[in-house]
Amino acid sequence: MRTLLILFTVTISSMLYAQVTTDKEKATLLRMREEEKMARDVYMVMNDKWDHHVFSHISESEIYHISQMKIWVDKFSLDDPITRNNDKRGVFTDQSLQNLYNELKASGLQSKEAAFRAGAKLEEVDILDLKAALAETSNVDLQSTYKYLIHASENHLRAFVRNLKTLGIDYKPVVMIQKEFDGIMNGQGGGMGMGAGKGNGNKSGTGNGNSCCMKSGNKN
Length: 220
Fold this sequence. Notes:
This protein is mainly alpha-helical. It has 8 helices and 4 strands, in the order ααααααααββββ. The chain has a single domain (22-219), classed as Ferritin (Up-down Bundle). Helix 2 packs parallel to helix 5. The relative contact order is 0.14. Mean pLDDT is 84; it is low at 3-18, 193-211 and 214-220.
């Protein structure tokens, strides 16, 4: 009986430990919160310049993604960089995100083609960063949030590639490897899951990945 009790205690402890979020995971969480904001800010600038529905739709999707990450920031009582900067457009605590924002904004303002390319590159970066974040955490709820965001970013990437196609341009990946990019274009990406909803209101991220912008499983 004592042996069974010890085994039960060890099992429960292991389950609880698997849900503990480390300092590294928390730092990544904060970066991903700012990265979703960076995407929103870039697309707002592009929409102001080019007035194209793909930018307005996807920027709305990013607003939802930012809110999903805010749930985790609040859950762990973290110092939110977006709140700290008063959510000012184009301002980021993470210097690498600041540099990427500056680069994408400058390039995307040159032409509509360049704006679509900037969007595609941004989504490539976001997918890779989210996959890295997913791999480093054992928290199943946080994993579900990251899977949902990956799924949405894959949809966004396909949308930008389609818009480039209408201009007669076959987009080639600039960050991820060709095989991974081709898999996403063929609808074989790895992002599926649930967003971190409040209470029991989890948001579903399921779907076939053919719409451009996912929000609770639907188009914006």
